[in-house]
Amino acid sequence: MPFYHKAGNIPDKRHVVFRQDNGTLYAEELVGTQGFAGLSSLVYHLYPPTRVKQKDKAYSVIPKIAIENGLDAMSFKGFNIQPEADYIKSRKTLMVNAAMQIGLAAPSTSPDYFYKNADADELLFIHKGSGTLYTMFGELKFQYGDYINIPRGTVYKIEFDTSENRILFVESFDPIFTPRRYRNDFGQLLEHSPFCERDIKIPQNLKTHDEQGEFDIFIKKKGFMFPYVYANHPFDVAGWDGYLYPYTFSIFNFEPLTGRIHMPPPIHQTFESKNFVICSFVPRLYDYHPDAIPAPYHHSNIDSDEILYYVDGDFMSRNNIEKGQITLHPGGIPHGPHPGAIERSIGKKETEELAVMIDPFQPMMITEEALNIEVKDYYKSWLD
Hints:
Elements: E1 5-8, E2 27-32, E3 40-45, E4 52-55, E5 59-60, E6 65-67, E7 74-77, H1 87-90, E8 91-96, E9 100-105, E10 114-117, E11 121-128, E12 131-135, E13 138-142, E14 146-150, E15 156-160, E16 166-172, E17 200-201, E18 212-221, E19 224-232, E20 237-242, E21 247-250, E22 269-273, E23 276-281, E24 284-285, E25 299-300, E26 306-312, E27 325-329, E28 334-335, H2 341-345, E29 350-351, E30 354-360, E31 365-367, H3 368-371
């Protein structure tokens, strides 16, 4: 959960007269989610954030669904997604339900436009590459292993340091938070939490852009992209304060919880939303009971699908898994370790696996983009 932060110049009270050096009033804007009941920040612009100069014809970015109702275990080779120069076009949605979209992106250059998702919080996991996220709240450096949490409605621009970038993205139509059980009544992360506020990186180096002209902002809303041209730079902010802002958290700062016998997946939980959870599997010591079986036991997916994105290391419960590969184990049928994995795990002391798991509470539909990178007959991979 983000904590209170402020940057730049702000008045002593909210909603009072606050003038620039030239005598012009700053344009105060409340940015928030869930109406006036969720997280929010107050932002002070040099110019009103409403100065639209031009808008062009909207175009559809609605994913094309290939499988609306399926029950097959499936797998996809994520690194087969081909790089594209344009950041928006590089985003390939693979799975969809009413609450979220999951996909991959391989942008090769930094966009010269700004982008805003007006529908969904975005969680970007950086598998390859590094760079800087620019917003009106300041700058956020990111690198391999970082989650970038971007609240809906945030105008941003990304500058990449390299041409090879691989991103797993989640778009959530409900806000994304840290797990409630890790926080006290005041929002502070508790001592048993596998991470703390020191691990959360917040925007720095606030720069006020006093620039007028033509600034392209692509706004995603209800499956359409709306090209807008604004009359002033969207990062014309002199100061802000509040609880709503983008932040990064590195998967390498997740401190694993371990036990004498195999612990269930919720110990890996990192984020939650109304209709899904996200977990981080990181290098850790295995179970230390003398007869422990480190491999996970077979379990039935009844209430959720299970989606695993393999980042690095040797994921001991799976055979023939590559970096960037995704598996989908649908709710309704059991799954478990691949043949030989249980025996291989006995006696092992630690694992170096690195993976991101997404558990949606509503079945996922599969897109045509996903079928382009499908591993055929994955559902047969449990046969001896």
